[in-house]
Amino acid sequence: xxxxxxxxxxxxxxxxxxxxxxxxxxxxxxxxxxxxxxxxxxxxxxxxxxxxxxxxxxxxxxxxxxxxxxxxxxxxxxxxxxxxxxxxxxxxxxxxxxxxxxxxxxxxxxxxxxxxxx
Length: 118
Prior knowledge:
The protein is built from one helix and nine strands; from the N terminus they run H-E-E-E-E-E-E-E-E-E. With 118 residues, the chain is α+β, with helices and mostly antiparallel strands. It starts with a helix and ends with a strand.
């Protein structure tokens, strides 16, 4: 019985240590990353459904994409604070002006909105 109790306590302590380490790792990752969100609209300020927002990491040249829904919103998470990103939106052969999310932008949750058309 004592052996079973010790084993149960050891398992519980180990589980708590693992959970604590995971929380610390997640907190460290959250502190070193940022997010980007925004809305893609047409010339009359109407949100665009189905626009493709492309985010290009200027260091690795990796491109991530997000397809907007009826509300025109997009979001990207887990972005490095130390890297510049080039962002633009495309829809039905037309493109928005390209914008840059700079490494000098200290916001944890940056917002960039895009217009496609007049």
